[in-house]
């Protein structure tokens, strides 16, 4: 393998949504360096962090309609039965909710947990309390997707965090989604909630680190054969 290919395979690409932020940090570093040289290097550290924050690595996703894949990188912060947000229109009965909390060092590109068709997308404004708190599900700014899958409708909710100020979702209603397909991004710390209907069993534990597009967080069926994966 050539040196060029080695470097290319090692460096993780930056998502296009991050380009303006990386450029702004770099320009700020130049200005600060003109005022006081050591500030340039401090600014460059923040510039590199910004590029790291907006990284968009390739992932290999299990292609099995019985598996629920993590929609985000981060720590599994909740596994419980709760009533889904009213705007999702998923009924008043409790559903299995698995939450993944993303800190400012996690990759923030969000991926579809299952294959299906987007039934609805609902945005709600709100506050910006710590996304790790349970009340963040009700109080914080959020964007919810309802996806029709083989096992019924599931909910995926992007929740803004303490410093997050922008939820991005580039998916559209009635569009199909593959498991592991990118559908959105949240800037600077946040959380993803997945609401699952009856029949889903958790396959992660509290505090476990999840990887978007790869970690199986729940399953609708038990013993089965080999699972095919797709790179994206």
Please give the count of helices. Answer: 4
- Biggest sheet descriptor: 8 strands, antiparallel
Spans of at least 5 consecutive residues with low confidence: 3-10
N- and C-termini, Cα separation: 22 Å
Give me the side-by-side strand order of the main sheet: 10-6-7-8-12-4-3-14
Shape: elongated
Radius of gyration: 19 Å
Secondary structure class reads alpha+beta
Tell me the helix content.
Answer: 10-25%
Order of helices and strands: HHHEEEEEEHEEEEEEEEEE
Strand content: 35-45%
Mean pLDDT, nearest integer? 83
Could you tell me the number of beta strands? 16
Describe the structure.
- The chain is of the alpha+beta class and about 230 residues long.
- It has four helices and 16 strands.
- The protein has an eight-stranded antiparallel sheet, with no helix packed on it.
- The radius of gyration is 19 Å and the shape is elongated.
- The model is unreliable at about 5-10 (pLDDT under 50).
Produce the secondary structure layout.
Blueprint: H1 3-10, H2 19-35, H3 37-53, E1 60-63, E2 67-69, E3 74-82, E4 95-102, E5 109-111, E6 116-124, H4 136-139, E7 142-149, E8 152-160, E9 167-169, E10 176-177, E11 182-186, E12 190-196, E13 201-202, E14 209-210, E15 216-219, E16 228-231
Antiparallel strand pairs: 1-16, 2-15, 3-4, 3-14, 4-12, 5-11, 6-7, 6-10, 7-8, 8-12, 9-11, 13-15
Helix pairs in contact: 2-3
Keywords summarizing the entry:
single chain, 232 residues, alpha+beta, eight-stranded antiparallel β-sheet, three-stranded antiparallel β-sheet, 20% helix, elongated, disordered N terminus
């Amino acid at each position: 393998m050539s040196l060029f290919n080695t470097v290319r395979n090692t460096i993780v690409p930056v998502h296009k949504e991050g380009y303006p932020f990386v450029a702004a940090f770099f320009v700020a570093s130049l200005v600060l360096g003109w005022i006081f040289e050591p500030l340039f290097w401090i600014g460059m550290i923040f510039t590199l962090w910004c590029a790291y924050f907006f990284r968009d690595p390739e992932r290999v996703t299990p292609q099995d309609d019985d598996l629920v894949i993590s929609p985000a990188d981060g720590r599994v912060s909740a596994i419980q039965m709760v009533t889904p947000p009213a705007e999702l229109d998923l009924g008043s009965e409790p559903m299995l909710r698995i939450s993944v909390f993303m800190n400012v060092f996690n990759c923030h590109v969000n991926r579809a947990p299952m294959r299906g068709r987007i039934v609805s997308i609902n945005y709600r404004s709100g506050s910006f309390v710590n996304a790790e708190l349970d009340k963040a599900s009700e109080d914080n700014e959020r964007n919810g997707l309802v996806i029709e899958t083989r096992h019924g409708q599931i909910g995926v909710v992007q929740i803004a965090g303490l410093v997050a100020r922008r939820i991005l979702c580039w998916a559209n209603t009635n569009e199909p989604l593959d498991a592991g397909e990118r559908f959105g991004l949240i800037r600077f710390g946040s959380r993803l909630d997945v609401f699952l209907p009856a029949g889903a069993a958790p396959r992660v534990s509290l505090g476990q680190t999840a990887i978007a597009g790869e970690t199986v967080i729940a399953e609708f069926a038990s013993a089965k054969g080999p699972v095919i994966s797709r790179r994206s």
